[in-house]
Amino acid sequence: MTKSLIPMTHRNHYLALWLLLVGLVQLGAGPNPPAGARLPLTDMGSATYLGFEGGLYPAQSNTMPLAHAQAGVERANLIQPLDVNGNPAAGGNYVLLSAISRHIFG
Length: 106
Known about the structure:
Layout: H1 10-28, E1 48-49, E2 52-53, H2 66-77
Antiparallel strand pairs: 1-2
């Protein structure tokens, strides 16, 4: 058995994966995308996908409705610092907590 001159370290694995992904992306790129190619939501116009409209917002629009923006500002204004017991406190802290299950990664 011949020993490889370059051992496959983690770095080599990541590099190989990156090169594979770049190659796959390049295969799908080109001036003439295949028929039925997926479109970004923002480019769908009046088209639908599995019965769903395109656009980021209702009515196939990519422009945020004023009511949507106002609701976001109202909710953002409700965020306030809390003390260790969860009570509003001027000297409290803001915390961003993100939780994810390891099981989704296999």
